């Protein structure tokens, strides 16, 4: 291999590694402004489109493999695969997820040679990032790194996570241009970022006044895999009833306005189990507040009875006020894509069988309203914003991160949820099976969470808000604009090269 190509691949690999360091468990967030610059430098030096594609593919594969290393553990421990098969699935995952960055690199080369490289490449970056949600699996976008950067995070209520991604990508392009010794006038595009400090500040340090109680049972998947019978279920739900009436570690005796149980490792059958129904109703009645409960509900589809991962709200009188069914299912968890379904066992007890919900559901709670969404739906910006758009004044996220074990995945998932709170300007009440159970305010800040892997009760506070952000009103408009901007920048670059 030529020395220059070897250097290019080394720079691409470096960019992949630096992006891994941006996110948990390393959380070196300031690197987000420079992590992609080595790849961009290599792309600007490489004239061949095929080689640029390979550079991006390498970078993307390292990034996805490094941040989502926990995929191997989930496949091996809970997917029923032996180590070589799980490793093969993991390798296929990171190679597949690296392809979009290969496309980015292929297209970015011509744009990097133009005077409009900064906005053009940044728009292309955002266009490719947003596409991940339609490519089987999406997770951390570059803009998630801005969750704790108050200046950039203030963009999110207007643009969603894509605005911070655009700005961070622009900084990376600028850094690459400096390394390339390009004319300083090409950096003038950064002047467009000067109004950022004029954006309304996020409500830093905001604490609500409405009390909420969340129960974290810490049921590990291994307990379920070893056998979950009726006797264990009865003992567990009786314990959940007892925990529901506790004040938690704070010892504050304050009646909650809402009681929340998390998404479960083991399916809960409220509609099909009298025992479960009696205990859940007893918990809502004892606390004297509406209760959010995750349950499996069934629907007839083409003559077949299909399970749905659902969340219901129960009144203190035992009435079901609403039922929401998860619209975005987890690949390899709640459904197994073909052809993997031919040889991968179920991870959850009914994986591969779940049917997606179709409706946005908002539940009146007194003079206010809430909406519940479930676990992995956090990663879809419009899945969450649609709930606020429908009138939800606070959001409940029931989640089960126990499959991840002690990996960085649970902290990555929390980071994503924090961005959703900023985008929607809604409190998110995040109840999890074994951590991280917390309340997220509108600035993306969290209350002290319960310790992970331990049962506990969190009594915290939140607030209702009904203002609609630009992002809630207009959805992914910035992503669409970035697609158009990237196309225009690339076409103009090709025209300039041909002239």
Strand content: 5-15%
Count every beta strand, where a strand is a DSSP E run of 2 or more residues: 11
Radius of gyration: 24 Å
Please provide the ordered H/E string of secondary-structure elements: HHHHHHHHHEHHEHEEEEEHEHEEEHH
Strand order of the largest sheet: 5-4-3-2-1-11
Structure report:
The chain is globular. A hairpin with a 2-residue loop joins strand 6 (363-365) and strand 7. The chain has 16 helices and eleven strands. It has a six-stranded mixed sheet. Strands 6-7-8-9-10 form a five-stranded mixed sheet, covered by helices on one side. With 499 residues, the protein is α/β, with parallel strands linked by helices. The relative contact order is 0.13. The two termini are 32 Å apart. The protein has helices at residues 3-22, 37-45, 49-67, 70-78, 83-112, 117-131, 150-153, 156-159, 162-179, 221-225, 230-244, 274-287, 381-389, 409-424, 470-474, 477-498; strands spanning 210-216, 258-260, 291-301, 304-314, 320-325, 363-365, 368-374, 394-399, 428-432, 438-440, 456-462.
């Amino acid at each position: 291999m030529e020395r220059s190509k070897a250097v290019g691949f080394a720079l691409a690999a470096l960019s992949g590694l630096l992006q891994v360091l941006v996110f948990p468990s390393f959380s070196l967030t300031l690197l987000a402004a420079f992590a992609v610059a080595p790849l961009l430098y290599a792309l600007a030096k490489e004239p061949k489109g095929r080689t640029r594609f390979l550079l991006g593919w390498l970078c993307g594969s390292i990034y996805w493999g490094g941040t989502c290393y926990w995929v191997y553990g989930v496949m091996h421990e809970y997917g029923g695969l032996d180590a070589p098969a799980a490793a093969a699935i993991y390798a296929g995952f990171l190679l597949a997820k690296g392809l979009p960055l290969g496309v980015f690199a292929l297209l970015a080369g011509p744009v990097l040679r133009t005077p409009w490289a900064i906005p053009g490449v940044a728009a292309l970056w955002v266009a490719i990032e947003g596409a991940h949600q339609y490519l089987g699996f999406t997770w951390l976008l570059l803009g998630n790194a801005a969750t704790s950067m108050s200046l950039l995070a203030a963009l999110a209520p207007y643009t969603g996570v894509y605005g911070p991604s655009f700005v961070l990508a622009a900084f990376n392009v600028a850094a690459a241009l400096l390394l390339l010794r390009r004319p300083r006038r090409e950096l003038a595009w950064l002047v467009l970022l000067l109004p950022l400090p004029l954006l309304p500040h996020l409500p830093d340090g905001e604490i609500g006044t409405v009390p909420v109680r969340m129960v974290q049972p810490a049921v590990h998947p291994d307990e379920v895999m070893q056998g979950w019978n009726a006797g264990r279920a009865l003992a567990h739900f009786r314990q959940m009833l007892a925990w529901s009436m506790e004040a938690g570690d704070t010892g504050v005796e304050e009646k909650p306005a809402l009681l929340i149980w998390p998404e479960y490792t083991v399916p809960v059958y409220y509609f099909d189990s009298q025992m479960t129904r009696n205990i859940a109703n007893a918990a809502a009645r004892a606390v004297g507040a509406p209760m959010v409960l995750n349950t499996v509900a069934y629907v007839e589809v083409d003559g077949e009875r299909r399970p749905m991962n659902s969340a219901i709200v129960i009144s203190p009188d035992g009435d079901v006020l609403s039922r929401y069914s998860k619209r975005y299912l987890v690949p390899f968890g709640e459904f197994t894509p073909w052809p993997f379904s031919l040889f991968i066992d179920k991870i959850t007890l009914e994986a591969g069988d779940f049917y997606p919900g179709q409706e946005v559901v908002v539940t009146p709670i007194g003079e206010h309203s809430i909406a519940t969404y479930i676990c992995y739906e956090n990663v879809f910006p419009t899945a969450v914003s649609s709930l606020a758009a429908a009138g939800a004044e606070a959001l409940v996220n029931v989640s089960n991160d126990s499959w991840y074990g002690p990996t960085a995945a649970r902290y990555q998932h929390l980071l994503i949820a924090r961005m959703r709170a900023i985008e929607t300007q809604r409190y998110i009440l995040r109840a999890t099976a074994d951590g991280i159970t917390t309340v997220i305010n509108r600035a993306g800040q969290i209350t002290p969470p319960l310790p992970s892997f331990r049962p506990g009760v969190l009594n915290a506070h939140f607030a209702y808000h009904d203002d609609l952000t630009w992002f809630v009103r207009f959805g992914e408009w910035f992503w669409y604009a970035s697609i158009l901007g990237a196309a225009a920048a690339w076409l103009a670059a090709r025209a300039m090269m041909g002239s």
